[in-house]
Amino acid sequence: MTSVRYCVNGKLVSGIAPTNRGFAYGDGIFRTMRLLDGELQDWPLHYQTLVADCSKIQIVCPSAELLMQEFKHLMASADDEVLSHGIVKIMITRGDGARGYAPPAICEPTRVLIYSALPVYAPEIYTTGVALYTCQTRLASQPLLAGIKHMNRLENVLARAELKDPRFFDGVLRDYDDQVIEAVSGNLFISKDGLVMTPALDHCGVAGVMRQKILDWYKTQGQAVVSTNLFMENLLVADAVVVANSVYGVLQVTQIDEQAIATNDWAKELRAHLNYVVH
Questions:
Q1: What is the pLDDT, as a whole number, of residue 78?
Q2: Residues 102, 43 share a domain
Q3: Under a CB-based contact definition with an 8 Å cutoff, are residues 234 and 240 in contact?
Q4: Same domain for 187 and 266?
Q5: pLDDT in tens, 25-54
Q6: Which three-class secondary structure state does DSSP give residue 175?
Q7: Selection from 74, 107, 75 nearest residue 92 by Cα
Q8: Are residues 50 and 134 in the same domain?
Q9: 130 lies in which domain range?
């Protein structure tokens, strides 16, 4: 059995038509989630986000029941081998279309589910934290797409290509006004003098599901997280910085470029509050 499996519109195939608008224009959205003990972690929140992202680019999101049915079909087809852990990526494109940017008046969205093995992380990322690199690639401002995880991620591709030094786990992305927006593959939070802050995503960036889980948890505790404009100097003088996504959870940032960052047990505490299972 291969380590990657595909399901396209309910069929176990490994390709889509070159006329598909997701392939041709990046006309679609996606979300990546963790599979734990055979269950999609935080599926209701992921689906809620899929619906919201689709709505923003005027695609009708397939029903949760259909996507779950296809997920089960994908998992059940694994030659009787139980795939209890891994990563599942769901992609929704506008579907096939003729040449040209104009979306078809009537379209049938394409559904793609991809299973892959969990990334192999060094165990120490959960104990000693991670270092981040400041990317030179900048994020362009586009409020219409801000927050959603659309399929055109060339900025992230270029930024990730900068990370050639194995000391750095991920990179910090800024916009053209020097505001810190996110990590290449995750969201950022800082704490300073008892206040928890995260970069505002009004003009660019991706609002990840783990980011939302952290916001929701603090809300249950009666503490607001401030979404605001942050700059590199805010990160460098913070009491603590964490980076988060749905695959690795929450990690303590201990260094940015060559500068050490103040640390505590914030990431460990958040993982415990969110019931994240370290893998």
A1: 64
A2: yes
A3: no
A4: yes
A5: 999 999 999 999 889 999 999 999 999 999
A6: strand
A7: 107
A8: no
A9: 123-273
Q: What is the mean pLDDT of the chain?
A: 93
Judge contact between 205 and 182, C-beta under 8 A: yes
- The residue type of 261 is I
Q: Is residue 95 part of a domain?
A: yes
Contacts of 230 (CB under 8 A, 6+ apart): 179, 180, 188, 190, 197, 198, 199, 200
**Residues 195-253: tens digit of each pLDDT:** 999 999 999 999 999 999 999 999 999 999 999 999 999 999 999 999 999 999 999 99
> In this structure, are residues 139 and 175 in contact, taking their beta carbons and an 8 Å threshold?
yes
- How far is it, in rounded angstroms, from Cα 33 to Cα 91? 12
Whether 81 maps to a domain, the answer reads yes
Residue 155: inside a domain: yes
CA distance 162 to 10: 37
Overall domain count for the chain:
2
Does any domain span residue 183?
A: yes
Residues 163 and 255 in one domain: yes
Characterize 35-66 residue by residue with b for buried, 16 or more Cβ atoms within 10 angstroms of its Cβ, and e for exposed.
Answer: bbeeebbbbebbbebbbebbeebebebbeeee
Same domain, 180 and 256: yes
Q: Are 89 and 129 part of one and the same domain?
A: no
Model confidence, pTM: 0.93
What confidence tens digit (pLDDT) does each residue in 84-93 have?
A: 789 999 999 9
Helices (H), the chain: 21-25, 43-56, 64-76, 154-162, 209-220, 232-236, 266-273
CATH number at residue 206: 3.20.10.10
Which amino acid, one-letter code, is at 38? G
